[in-house]
Design brief:
Strands 1-2 form a two-stranded antiparallel ribbon. It is built from eleven helices and six strands. The chain is mainly alpha-helical. It is 56% helix and 5% strand.
C-alpha cells in the first residue's frame, strides 16, 4: 500500500455553465500562448519585429494540430477503425491523442508558408521558437494527467501516479510518465537557451538541438509506457521514430555548422524603409550631401571644356579667346611697323 502518490483528477472537464472546459484542451492552449510569447521575445532580441512570431503561428498552429492528430490516428488506427470502434471518435481531439512528430512536421509546413509570405527565413524563426515549443510541450503533457492516460509501468514509488478504474485502464499506481516528459521538456528548453547564448546557434541549429534533446528523452520515457502501441523489432514505433529523428537532427547540426557557421545577421528585412539614394541624401536645393547633381555635373563638364570657368591662374598667352588672340596679333603688328 502506497503512503504517498500523485492523485489523478476525478474528471477532466469543468462545466462553466453551458460551456465545458476540458483540461486537455486548456493545457494545449496555454502552451501555445506561452510558446508564442517567449518566441516573440527571442525573435525581437535577434533583430526581428514584434508580432511576427504570432503572425507565423497563425499558420503553424492549425497545421500542427491537424498533423498531430493525423499521426496519432494513423499510428493507432485500431482505436478508431477496429471492430466495435466508432471512426467518428478520430475527430474528437479534445479526448486526447496528438502525436508530436506529426505536429512538428505539419506545423513546419504551415510556418514555411507564412515565412515565405513575409520574406523571412524559416530556420531563424524556428530557432527563436525552439525553447518555447519545449515549454509548451511541458505544459501540454499535463493534459494527459487530466485524461488519466499515457502512464507508465506499475510502481510503488512515493511519486507514483494513482489511476482510477475506467475504460481501457485498471486502477492502481503507475509511473507518471507525463510528469517525466514534462520535466524533461523544461530541461530541454533550458539547454537550448544556454547553448544558444554560449555558441550563438543559427540557421536552424537551435531548433535541431531541441529536436535531438527531446528525442533522447522521449526514447527512454516511451519505453516505460504500457499503453497499447505497435512494435517493430521489439521496440515501440515511437521509440524508432525518436531514434531516427535524433540521428537526422544531429546530422543537420554538423552539416549546417560547416556550411553556414555563425548566426544570421538579419532575420527580418525592413520592407517599410525607404531605399537609400545612390550618392547620398538631397539637400534643400536638390543636390546631395556631396554637392553633386545634374546641374553641378553639367557645370563640371563645361568647366573642363572652358578654362575660364576655373579659378586657377593662367600663364600669359594661354587660354585666351579668339578676340584676345586677334588683339594681341594687332598689337604685335603695330610694334613692327
Amino acid at each position: 500500500m502506497n503512503l504517498a502518490f500523485i492523485p489523478s483528477p476525478s474528471t477532466g472537464v469543468i462545466e462553466l455553465g453551458p460551456i465545458p472546459l476540458r483540461g486537455y484542451a486548456f493545457c494545449i492552449i496555454i502552451g501555445v500562448f506561452v510558446a508564442v510569447w517567449f518566441g516573440n521575445k527571442r525573435w525581437v532580441a535577434r533583430g526581428g519585429k514584434a508580432g511576427t512570431v504570432a503572425d507565423v503561428a497563425v499558420w503553424a498552429v492549425p497545421f500542427g494540430l491537424v498533423g498531430g492528430r493525423l499521426y496519432h490516428v494513423i499510428t493507432d488506427y485500431q482505436l478508431y477503425f477496429s471492430d466495435g470502434e466508432d471512426w467518428v471518435d478520430a475527430f474528437k481531439i479534445w479526448e486526447g491523442g496528438l502525436g508530436i512528430w506529426g505536429a512538428i512536421a505539419f506545423g513546419a509546413v504551415g510556418a514555411w508558408i507564412a515565412c515565405r509570405r513575409r520574406g523571412i527565413p524559416l530556420p531563424a524563426w524556428a530557432d527563436a521558437l525552439a525553447p518555447g515549443i519545449a515549454i509548451a510541450q511541458a505544459i501540454g503533457r499535463w493534459g494527459n494527467w487530466f485524461n488519466q492516460e499515457l502512464y507508465g509501468k506499475p510502481t510503488d514509488l512515493p511519486w507514483a501516479l494513482e489511476i482510477s478504474e475506467g475504460p481501457n485502464r485498471v486502477a492502481g499506481t503507475y509511473h507518471p510518465t507525463f510528469l517525466y516528459e514534462s520535466l524533461w521538456c523544461i530541461g530541454v528548453a533550458l539547454l537550448v537557451i544556454w547553448a544558444d547564448r554560449r555558441f550563438r546557434l543559427g540557421h536552424g541549429r537551435a531548433f535541431a538541438l531541441y529536436v535531438a534533446a527531446y528525442c533522447a528523452g522521449r526514447g527512454w520515457i516511451e519505453y516505460m509506457r504500457v499503453d497499447e502501441a505497435h512494435h517493430v523489432l521489439g521496440l515501440r514505433l515511437n521509440v524508432w521514430t525518436a531514434i531516427i529523428v535524433f540521428v537526422l537532427a544531429i546530422v543537420y547540426i554538423v552539416i549546417s555548422a560547416k556550411i553556414r557557421p555563425g548566426r544570421e545577421e538579419i532575420v527580418e528585412p525592413d520592407r517599410d524603409a525607404a531605399p537609400a539614394q545612390k550618392d547620398g541624401p538631397a539637400d534643400e536645393n536638390g543636390s546631395d550631401e556631396n554637392g553633386s547633381d545634374e546641374d553641378s555635373s553639367a557645370k563640371a563638364d563645361a568647366a573642363e571644356k572652358d578654362p575660364f570657368t576655373k579659378d586657377e591662374p593662367r600663364e600669359p598667352g594661354k587660354g585666351a579667346t579668339a578676340e584676345s588672340a586677334e588683339a594681341a596679333g594687332a598689337a604685335g603688328a603695330a610694334e613692327k611697323s
